[in-house]
């Protein structure tokens, strides 16, 4: 589908039009370059939880995840004990999947190892796109990729480092969400704004 006009007569990517929180996410966050490690960790937790589900489902549970996962403070998540895992398995505000919950705890530990090696997780992940966002020019949803050469490389490296539930498709979604790639449709009102943010990235 091509970019579609919403009720406010603003043209948006069509995937976000099903409910208001999705529209706000599209307009305010999706594709904006992220350099904050806590935000990167938040999206890694949410995207690893998404496996087999829709992003809309995860977005609706985002506040539940924020509360259950200590506002995505990876230092705290890394030390979650097994007793808390059992509590989380009873928490309706998140996806109650033991493998995904344990993966988030494991990934918090691996995340800090990457920080120690590269100074920040942001430094590490941006190195896979040469430090600047990839500016795609997608005309319709039919052209939207699910993976890329960069996401393949990044997912392979993360797996080697011991991260879990972060395959190439999941990592490509992370790259889209955190602005390593601009996949707004060219006709979307956010395309040029996000492109300018990437061009004026911090030094």
UniProtKB/TrEMBL annotation:
InterPro entries named in the record: Adenine_glyco, DNA-3mA_glycosylase, DNA_glycosylase
GO molecular function, one term: DNA-3-methyladenine glycosylase activity
UniProt entry tagged with the keyword Magnesium: no
GO annotation, biological process: base-excision repair
Keywords assigned by UniProt, alphabetized: Metal-binding, Zinc
SUPFAM superfamilies: DNA-glycosylase
Binding site for Zn(2+): 13, 26, 184, 188
Entry protein name: DNA-3-methyladenine glycosylase I
Species assigned in the record: Algoriphagus kandeliae
Organism classification: Bacteria, Pseudomonadati, Bacteroidota, Cytophagia, Cytophagales
């Amino acid at each position: 589908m091509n970019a579609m006009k919403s009720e406010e007569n603003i043209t948006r990517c069509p995937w976000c039009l099903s409910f208001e929180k999705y529209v706000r996410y599209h307009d305010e966050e999706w594709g904006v370059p992220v350099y904050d490690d806590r935000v990167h960790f938040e999206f890694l937790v949410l995207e690893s939880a998404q496996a087999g589900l829709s992003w809309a489902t995860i977005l609706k549970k985002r506040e539940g995840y924020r509360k259950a996962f200590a506002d995505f403070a990876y230092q705290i998540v890394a030390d979650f004990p097994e007793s808390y895992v059992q509590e989380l398995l009873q928490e309706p505000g998140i996806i109650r999947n033991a493998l995904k919950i344990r993966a988030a705890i494991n990934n918090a530990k691996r995340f800090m190892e990457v920080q120690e090696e590269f100074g920040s997780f942001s430094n590490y992940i941006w190195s896979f796109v040469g430090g600047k966002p990839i500016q795609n020019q997608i005309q319709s949803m039919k052209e939207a990729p699910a993976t890329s050469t960069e996401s393949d490389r990044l997912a392979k490296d993360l797996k080697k480092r011991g991260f879990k539930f972060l395959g190439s498709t999941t990592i490509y979604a992370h790259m889209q969400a955190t602005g390593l790639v601009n996949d707004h449709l060219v006709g979307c009102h956010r395309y040029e704004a996000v492109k300018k943010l990437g061009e004026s990235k911090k030094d």
